[in-house]
Design goal:
GO terms for molecular function: phosphatase activity. With 396 residues, the protein is an alpha+beta fold. It contains eleven helices and 17 strands. 32% of the residues lie in helices and 28% in strands. A six-stranded antiparallel β-sheet has the order 3-2-1-6-5-4. The radius of gyration is 22 Å and the shape is globular.
Length: 396
């Protein structure tokens, strides 16, 4: 059995708020680094925010047009040489199991014509990977990293919603997932959830009614009821029924939640789905964009003792699925023009070459271009799933 590296041991032994200080000291000691910075992507996924003691931190940088942003988008190390200063700035992705957290920036001294050794880059990436794992764990016990992610103050409802989410992207050999909510700092009731086991991937996309705290409380109740049923080993139908009863028992049908529930069977690509409301599904297969027509059933909590029946279809390797809330479809331009299905299909097609974690952000940016800079009437959710499938020999 491989033993933890010295870096991993040092990170595990450090206090949660000190793990970045530990990795900075380690890199400075090992590689004589001039600077070491950790930048975390903000909730809107447009800025990379430096970790430091607020408010005394360095300015944030753009995800779209900066050297750290290039490393974040490509998910690989990016080096920038300054020959006049005899330095090299290395930007390394900080990610864990496909969840993109940010970028580790390291400035190293180099001679005039020197290129960084591959072994140095490999060691720095291992440090970034170890740091990523510890940041996820440390967030249970410190606010340092959560504070660094916000470019502005979250509303209380948005705080509740972001704490409910599993992450914003994840990956396994069989699939890659990415999702985003907007407006990121003032979301209401839209939510997503996922969980995977050896042979199953469960995905939930929800659109709760109402605004502010009421919407966030409703979504929290439903999502935790679904998780409770899933963790008890119940079928997809029973998961929907338990959440339906929980919401109806609390609100008596006056409040309800539109939800899509999926179970993907990883070995075969078979899918069970329950369409309990308004979020919709689109498929991109071999260049063709088309909606997946489903039999709509009652939203969770609308009536007492609703029986839910799953539908079935199959995904093929190379398929891309998009799960989209009604805040996208119903978005209006300043002139009152609704965002059309044709525009949505074009957006799906235009982003076909991007990896799944980048697609939701780009699609929502296009939506913002249609809607304009004014306040949104509703929040919007886009989730993208790329299906790779399991290899014939069962390797994962």
């Amino acid at each position: 059995m491989d033993r933890p590296s010295a870096v991993e041991r040092a990170l595990r032994e450090a206090a949660p708020h000190e793990i970045f200080d530990v990795i900075r000291f380690t890199i400075e000691h090992r590689h004589h680094a001039l600077t070491v910075d950790l930048l975390l992507v903000d909730y809107a996924m447009t800025r990379l925010q430096p970790v430091g003691v607020l408010p005394h931190t360095r300015p944030s940088v753009s995800v779209h047009d900066s050297a750290p942003g290039r490393a974040f988008g490509a998910q690989e190390a990016h080096c920038v040489y300054d020959r006049s200063a005899s330095t090299a700035a290395v930007h390394l992705p900080v990610s864990v199991r496909g969840d993109r957290l940010g970028v580790l920036g390291v400035t190293l001294p180099v001679s005039q014509d020197e290129e960084l050794d591959a072994a140095v880059l490999e060691d720095l990436q291992e440090c970034a990977d170890a740091l990523a794992h510890e940041v996820v764990v440390a967030e249970r016990d410190t606010d340092v990293f959560l504070q660094a992610r916000r470019a502005e103050r979250l509303t209380l409802a948005a705080e509740m919603q972001w704490q409910l989410l599993p992450g914003r992207s994840c990956a396994r050999p069989e699939y890659s997932l990415g999702a985003q909510l907007e407006p990121a700092y003032a979301i209401f009731g839209d939510c997503f959830d996922w969980s995977a086991s050896a042979d199953d991937l469960y995905v939930t996309v929800s659109n709760g009614m109402g605004e502010g705290i009421d919407a966030a409380l409703l979504t929290n109740l439903a999502i935790n009821a679904l998780r409770n049923a899933r963790r008890a080993g119940l079928s997809l139908s029973d998961q929907a029924s338990l959440a339906d009863q929980a919401v109806y028992g609390q609100h008596g049908g006056t409040r309800y939640l539109s939800t899509l529930l999926f179970r993907f069977h990883l070995p075969t690509g078979g899918v069970e789905i329950i369409d309990a409301g308004s979020p919709r599904v689109w498929r991109l297969r071999e260049g063709t964009v088309e909606p997946i027509e489903l039999e709509a059933q009652m939203p969770l909590g609308m009536f007492e003792d609703t029986a839910y029946v799953p539908q079935r279809f199959k995904v093929e390797p190379g398929d891309r699925l998009l799960f989209i809330s009604d805040g996208v479809y119903d978005a209006l331009s300043p002139g009152g023009e609704r965002y059309s299905l044709r525009a949505l299909a074009a957006s799906i097609s235009n982003t076909r070459l991007l990896p799944a974690p980048q697609v939701p952000r780009v699609m929502l940016q296009e939506l913002l271009g249609h809607r304009g800079s004014g306040p949104a009437a509703d929040d919007s959710l886009v989730m993208c799933l790329d299906w790779h499938g399991r290899s014939v020999d069962g390797d994962r």
